[in-house]
Every structure is written in structure tokens, then in C-alpha cells.
């Protein structure tokens, strides 16, 4: 038995730092365990899927996993901390690559939406004591709480809107007034929300709209001794690809900029994340061939591999696809197929879109960002000039593509890979060709810009890209913005 100089308040405080409340029985279970408290807290927070209250069952599951790990590695439980720290530098925690099983049948779509509802309602049930919609007319209480899909939203007048919400048991009309109406008008079809309100006949007058939202992320304050670079939308093969800007970037990241301060920043960089649209592709949009410098997809990827091969080999490059790459268009997208991924150096790690990656304890959710077009077009206060504000909406809704059936095609996987189950430390997106960084509830948000100047299509829609902008982030520390294009 290990003697611990630690009390209940300390355990509660450790969870609070990570943004979680904890059940008293869960605390007692931790204190009675022979494992290191810090390890139990960290592993439990990683497992509890963003729930606000950590339950004894979740702690018990973590203890069983640690016991299993201990038996397999034949180490003493008091040394489990050292074992936990001897982790791989990069672990892919979640990725559809090699796991897709959907065929596009009706059954697949039913399973997909059931998965979306179950995952998001599980998160919401920690904050909403929901009853089935069909039970509303049977209860005698004045107030009610429900969880359901948003089926439709309609503005009735200046001060009132109507939301139709449904679960597996039925549909109900929810009326939103005043400030609640403002929230209602920003709801998307097929997102899952909670509603608390007063019963009015067969309808509900909403007092509150509850989003799944993420809890505070205390891990974001933990400082690391390395930096991460984020880029996306390189578009190798396009005749608007910025060769000189890319060369300057490669010189900098290889610590050869000639500027002492910039080279010192480059020396701290250990990881490079690339959020899709590595090449410009072929036939992605009408008349694209007129805007190509390299009009063969194989040659585009060969050129891309050559360019990445010029980057120093001690740098780990994590690369995912986007809608211009040679993978299926529907999200989630698998990693580049072997015929293309094999062209790249061994320090390039290929993942799908989205992917959830652990780099030395820092969890990065990388998503190309195609749904940002839908979000920005639907919410008037959002803009392409501040893409990170749109990324906040994805975290509030705990889903990377909450609008179904718009510009972002979604594959009906039996498991909804687009739900933000676990709270990341960093979310990285691209796609919109503009730059923005910020923090939301302790999570660092970065939308990296492009390496392509304005295209003919962008001119038509009046989109002004911000090419050559690079974000460098030291977890828990500084954020740098370097510009390689003027």
C-alpha cells in the first residue's frame, strides 16, 4: 500500500484545473488506489469524453487499464508515472484511415445519425436532465428539459423564432424570444442541443439553449520545450503557387534564414502540421486545367514530395488531405493512398482528415476545414478575415461539420468521426486561405493560410487570401506569426 500525503480537496482541485468536476465516490476511489494520483487524474481526463462530472465508473475503468498495462510490462505500480511518461513522441489517437466501412445505404445513414445523436447527447446529459419528447404531454411539471436534433428554425417576427426539435420519440415546437431568439437564429439543422423551458400546451417556451460545448482545458497552460508549426493549402501544381515564398519558408525552418532571432525560433520547432490541400489536384472545379502548372496528379505529388524532402529530417511532419487531394471528397477522409504517400520521406506521417494526434502529451485535432464555408455563410457575424471565430462555433457544437447536406459532403460512417469527443489542446484548420489564431476555453485555435495567390475563382467571389502566413506555437507559451509573402 502506497502512503499518500494528499486529501480530497487536492484531488478535486487537480480535476478542476483540467476543467472537470468529480464525483465524491470517484475521489475516494482515486485515494484508495495504489497508483500515482497525477497519473490517474491525467488518464481519467483523457478518457471521460468532455463530461463535466467525472464518475466512479470512469475512474474504475482507468484503474483497470493501468493494472492491465502494469501486468503486461511487469513494473511496480509506484513507477507507473515513469511508464506513462515513456510514451511515443507521436500517437494517432483517432483517424478513419483503414476503418471506413460505409457503403452509402439507408442503414448506414441511420447508423451515422444515431452515432452523432448518442455521442452528443451523452455530453449534454451531464448538463441537462432530459426526458423523451413524447413524454412532454404526459408530465405535470411546469418546466421541462429535452435533448434533440434541430430539425428546422424559422423566424416568426422581430422578437420570436420557432425551433423544431426531435429525438427518437417525436418532435416538439420550441419558441425562442429575446436573447434566446438570437441564439436560435444561429442554430444549424441536424446539430444536437439541449433545451430547458416552460411547457405551453404541446410546445415549449425556451428559457435556455444548451450547447454541448467544451469544458475549460487546463492542459493548455502546461508549457513544453518545443514548438509546432502549422501550415495548409500549399497547392503544389497550381500556376498561382508561390515558389519564392515557399523557398523562404524552407530556408527558415531549416534554420538558414540568416536572421539570428528567426533561426532561434526555427531551432525550437520539432513538429510541422499540414492541414490538407497539399496539391492543387485535377478536375476539382470547372476549367481547372487552365490554372495548372503541373497537369498530372502523379507529377504534382512527386513535386510535393521533393519539396518536403528539402526540409530537415529531424522535423516530424504530420500531413493530412483536403478537398483538392487525391482521396474521397466525403469527410472523414482517409490518408493519402500508398501510391502517393510512399513518395514522401520517412519523417512524413500520413493521417486522415480529421485526425486526433498526441505529440508528447499535446493533443492536436487537425481538420482541413471545409465546413467553415458553411458556418461563415450561415452566421452573419462571422467572416473569412477571422476564421478562428468560426472554429469556436465548431467547438461549441462539438462537431466539425454540424450542417449536414451543405457544401461539406459527409460519408455515413457507423461511427461519427466528426464529433469532437475529447477536448484537444490545439485545433488546426485551413481551407479558407486566410489566417487567424486565438484561444477558446484554453484550447489554441489556428487557421493557417495558403501558399497560393488569388485564383480566378476567388476573384469572382471577392475572397482575398492571406498567403505565406505561418503560425508557430510553443504549447503553454508564445505564439509567433511569420510572413513569407508581401
Compact overview of the structure:
This protein has 486 residues and is of the alpha/beta class. It is 28% helix and 23% strand.
Mean pLDDT: 89
Largest sheet: 6 strands, mixed
Percent strand equals: 15-25%
Compute the number of helices. Answer: 14
Number of domain modules: 3
Strand order of the largest sheet: 3-13-14-15-17-16
* N- to C-terminal distance: 64 Å
Number of β-strand runs: 19
What is the radius of gyration computed over CA atoms, rounded to a whole number of angstroms? Answer: 24 Å
Coarse morphology: globular
Helix content: 25-40%
What is the structural class? Answer: alpha/beta
Question: Could you describe the 3D structure shown?
Answer:
With 486 residues, the chain is α/β, with parallel strands linked by helices. It folds into three domains: 8-86, Helicase, Ruva Protein, domain 3 (Orthogonal Bundle), CATH 1.10.8; 125-210, OB fold (Dihydrolipoamide Acetyltransferase, E2P) (Beta Barrel); 218-483, 4-Layer Sandwich (Purple Acid Phosphatase, chain A, domain 2), CATH 3.60.21.50. It is built from 14 helices and 19 strands. It has helices at residues 8-17, 24-32, 37-47, 56-73, 80-85, 106-124, 179-184, 243-253, 260-267, 297-309, 338-341, 372-378, 387-397, 456-460, and strands at residues 21-22, 53-54, 90-95, 143-157, 160-167, 170-177, 192-200, 203-210, 227-231, 269-275, 316-320, 348-350, 355-359, 362-366, 426-429, 436-440, 443-447, 469-473, 479-483. Helix 10 links the parallel strand 10 and strand 11 (316-320). Helix 2 runs parallel beside helix 4 (56-73) and helix 3 crosses helix 4. The longest helix is centred in the first third of the chain and has 19 residues, at 106-124. It is globular and about 70 Å long. The N and C termini lie far apart (64 Å).
Amino acid at each position: 500500500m502506497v502512503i499518500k500525503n494528499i486529501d480530497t480537496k487536492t484531488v478535486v482541485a487537480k480535476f478542476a484545473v483540467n476543467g472537470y468536476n468529480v464525483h465524491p465516490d470517484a475521489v475516494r476511489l482515486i485515494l484508495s488506489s495504489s497508483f500515482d494520483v497525477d497519473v490517474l487524474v491525467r488518464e481519467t481526463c483523457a478518457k471521460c469524453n468532455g463530461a463535466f462530472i467525472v464518475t466512479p465508473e470512469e475512474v474504475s475503468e482507468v484503474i483497470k487499464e493501468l493494472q492491465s498495462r502494469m501486468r503486461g510490462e511487469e513494473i511496480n505500480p509506484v513507477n507507473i508515472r515513469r511508464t506513462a511518461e515513456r510514451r511515443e513522441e507521436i500517437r494517432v489517437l483517432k483517424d478513419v484511415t483503414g476503418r471506413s466501412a460505409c457503403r452509402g445505404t439507408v442503414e448506414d445513414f441511420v447508423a451515422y445519425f444515431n452515432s452523432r445523436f448518442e455521442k452528443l447527447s451523452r455530453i449534454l446529459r451531464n448538463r441537462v436532465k432530459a426526458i423523451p419528447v413524447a413524454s412532454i404531454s404526459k408530465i405535470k411539471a411546469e418546466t421541462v428539459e429535452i435533448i434533440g436534433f434541430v430539425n428546422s428554425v424559422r423566424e416568426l417576427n422581430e422578437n420570436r423564432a420557432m425551433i423544431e426539435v426531435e429525438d427518437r420519440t417525436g418532435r416538439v415546437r420550441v419558441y425562442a424570444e429575446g436573447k434566446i431568439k438570437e441564439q436560435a437564429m444561429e442554430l444549424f439543422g441536424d446539430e444536437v442541443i439541449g433545451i430547458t423551458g416552460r411547457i405551453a400546451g404541446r410546445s415549449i417556451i425556451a428559457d435556455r439553449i444548451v450547447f454541448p460545448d467544451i469544458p475549460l482545458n487546463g492542459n493548455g497552460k502546461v508549457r513544453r520545450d518545443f514548438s509546432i508549426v502549422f501550415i495548409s493549402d500549399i497547392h503544389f501544381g497550381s500556376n498561382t503557387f508561390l515558389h519564392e515564398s515557399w523557398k523562404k519558408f524552407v530556408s527558415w525552418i531549416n534554420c538558414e534564414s540568416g536572421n539570428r532571432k528567426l533561426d532561434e525560433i526555427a531551432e525550437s520547432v520539432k513538429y510541422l502540421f499540414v492541414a490538407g490541400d497539399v496539391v492543387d489536384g485535377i478536375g476539382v472545379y470547372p476549367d481547372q486545367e487552365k490554372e495548372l502548372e503541373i497537369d498530372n496528379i502523379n507529377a504534382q505529388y512527386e513535386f510535393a514530395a521533393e519539396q518536403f524532402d528539402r526540409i530537415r529530417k529531424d522535423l516530424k511532419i504530420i500531413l493530412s488531405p483536403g478537398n483538392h487531394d487525391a482521396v474521397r471528397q466525403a469527410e472523414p477522409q482517409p490518408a493519402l493512398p500508398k501510391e502517393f504517400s510512399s513518395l514522401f520521406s520517412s519523417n512524413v506521417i500520413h493521417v486522415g482528415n480529421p485526425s486526433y494526434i498526441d505529440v508528447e502529451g499535446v493533443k492536436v485535432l487537425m481538420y482541413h476545414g471545409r465546413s467553415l464555408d458553411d458556418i461563415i455563410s450561415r452566421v452573419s457575424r462571422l467572416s473569412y478575415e477571422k476564421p478562428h471565430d468560426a472554429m469556436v462555433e465548431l467547438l461549441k457544437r462539438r462537431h466539425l461539420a454540424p450542417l449536414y447536406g451543405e457544401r461539406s459532403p459527409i460519408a455515413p460512417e457507423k461511427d461519427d468521426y466528426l464529433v469532437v469527443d475529447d477536448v484537444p489542446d490545439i485545433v488546426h484548420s485551413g481551407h479558407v486561405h486566410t489566417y487567424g489564431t486565438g484561444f477558446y476555453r484554453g484550447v489554441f485555435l489556428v487557421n493557417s493560410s495558403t501558399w497560393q495567390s488569388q485564383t480566378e475563382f476567388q476573384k469572382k467571389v471577392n475572397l482575398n487570401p492571406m498567403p505565406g502566413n505561418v503560425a508557430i506555437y510553443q504549447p503553454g507559451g508564445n505564439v509567433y506569426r511569420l510572413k513569407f509573402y508581401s
